[in-house]
From TrEMBL:
Main location: membrane
Biological source species: Klugiella xanthotipulae
InterPro entries, A to Z: AA_ABC_transptr_permease_3TM, ArtM/GltK/GlnP/TcyL/YhdX-like, MetI-like, MetI-like_sf
Subcellular localization, as worded in the UniProt entry: Cell membrane
Organism classification: Bacteria, Bacillati, Actinomycetota, Actinomycetes, Micrococcales
Protein name: Amino acid ABC transporter membrane protein (PAAT family)
UniProt membrane topology term: Multi-pass membrane protein
SUPFAM superfamilies documented for this protein: MetI-like (SSF161098)
């Protein structure tokens, strides 16, 4: 007797589940759990080293600070670039497009090197503060991505909103600032939240600047902690968990924004 389409689909799913369970059991049986525990989950050193947790909290705070600095500059620059790209003045559009394409095409690693070592080389005697360098490097890169997000959000606002504002006597600039941009920001909240997640991870590139111990972010802290303990890669695991503490809630927040935006559109 031939199976119906629904029964074939159910049978196919069951077979896939069995294969997945078999693979998991096989991998679990072959793994050296003692070695894995010692290399990745040996948390005894946290109790033995009384300075570990204070340094971890400091690195966690630095990561948040670096991310915030980059996002503030990136958001301001992104709005400015988006307005330039939508301008009726052609040179403004060319400048914005050139900037966006260059900084979206360059790896953030090269931007950090340029600000950390290129500027002092090109301008002897000019040495930027670490926090200023971080803000510029992260902010200029994120501005290119945020600009395209903001531009799409501005274009998603119905043209009738601008027309209605102009009919009430508002100038184009005032209507853009008070009517269009606030609506566009509500639309682009989900991708902006994702940009914060990317900035959080890109902050790990700050190690190129030659930080002091008090300026370490989570990644640098985890790597340096490896030298002072025999707990294997556990410090990096701890740093990774801290990154997840930051990024997972942001991911959930982004999905919530997406849900609310979808409801508004309906």
């Amino acid at each position: 007797m031939a199976l119906t389409a629904a029964k074939r689909a159910r049978l196919s799913r069951n077979i896939q589940y069995l294969i997945l369970v078999a693979v998991v059991v096989l991998v679990a049986s072959l793994a050296n759990w003692g070695q894995i525990g010692h290399a990745f989950f040996n948390f005894g050193f946290v109790v033995e080293d009384s300075t570990f947790l204070p340094r971890l909290v400091q690195a966690f705070g630095n990561t948040l600070l670096y991310t915030a600095l980059g996002f503030i500059l990136g958001l301001a620059g992104g709005v400015f670039l988006a307005l330039l790209k939508l301008s009726s003045v052609a040179p403004y559009r060319w400048i914005s497009t050139l900037y966006i394409e260059v900084f979206r095409g360059l790896p953030a690693l090269l931007v950090f090197i340029a600000f950390g070592y290129g500027i002092p080389t090109a301008f002897p005697g000019l040495r930027l503060d670490t926090y200023v360098t971080v803000m510029l490097a992260l902010g200029l890169v994120s501005a290119a991505y945020i600009a395209e997000t903001i531009r799409a959000g501005l274009q998603a606002v119905p043209a009738g909103q601008m027309e209605a504002a102009r009919s009430l006597g508002m100038s184009h600039s005032r209507a853009m600032v008070t009517i269009v941009i606030p609506q566009a920001l509500r639309i682009v909240l989900p991708p902006l939240t994702n940009e914060v997640i990317l900035l959080t991870k890109d902050s790990s590139l700050i190690y190129l600047l030659g930080l002091t111990a008090s300026q370490y972010e989570l990644s640098k802290f985890g790597r340096e902690a490896l030298n002072g303990t025999d707990a294997g890669l556990t410090p990096l695991v701890v740093a990774g968990v801290c990154y997840l503490i930051i990024t997972v809630p942001l991911s959930l927040l982004s999905r919530r924004f997406e849900t609310k935006t979808a409801r508004i559109k309906k």
